[in-house]
Amino acid sequence: SKTFKYVFVPTSTDEPAEEREMTYTEDTIVQCCTEAFQEHYRGKSSKMSSEQQQQMLKGIIEQAKASGKEVDESKIDASMIKQLTSIQMCEMVPLINPKAVNGFTAVYMYCDDSGVYKGLPVNSRACMLSQACGKPTQVVGDVFLTRTCDDGRDKFERYDFTLSEFNPQAKWILDAGKVPPPPTTKPPPSEATIIAWQKQLGDWVASKLTQWDDDEQFRTSRQDKYPDRASYEIFLQEKADAKLKVKLA
Predict the structure, then answer these.
(1) Which of 47, 133, 237, 248 is deepest in the core (most CB within 10 A)?
(2) How far is CA 192 from the centre of its chain?
(3) Against a cut of 0.90, is the pTM above it?
């Protein structure tokens, strides 16, 4: 098993943000955060008042109707309310998206997916961080901050996200806001430069042929591929031409 660090940011500013550690295995590396954070939010949901449950239920019904589903509210009883409000999901907000330019490293903020329906208070510290990342999202309830490396193919790793990085002026946020400079167009090489390259490559070919002529061990080790000097010279010239094309590109 392995461990990684993440940060917990409570809703109340009276409670300090905490750096925590999570253990995972190869089998749980992907879902470990979602499962752990769902359990946290589920524990909070069990303490919801009847009014909060009704508010959450109203939001679920409105969401269902908006997606075109028919809902018969007359059939909703107390047991169904309890069942519906016990459903717990996490919302993953990418503060930094994984891209080739950042080594496919991402920072995610996990929120209670039903936080608005539950009437949870605004998390002012999480809002400040979100805005600093260019994500002007109103965040409610407790949040968790994690870092991963995910190239969308075979690589998926958990990296540390530490308490010192929970700061709108942190280096990872400032770096994310930097716009890479536009690609520069190289001026074409001068005629003198091209002649110098050609001479350098010609000298390289000549030195290899001299080695073929004078060094029996060198020659013998290559005769499986190149039975004679002429075939070896053709190979060297093709390689030199390829090197010159790369330089001219």
Answers:
(1) 133
(2) 46
(3) no
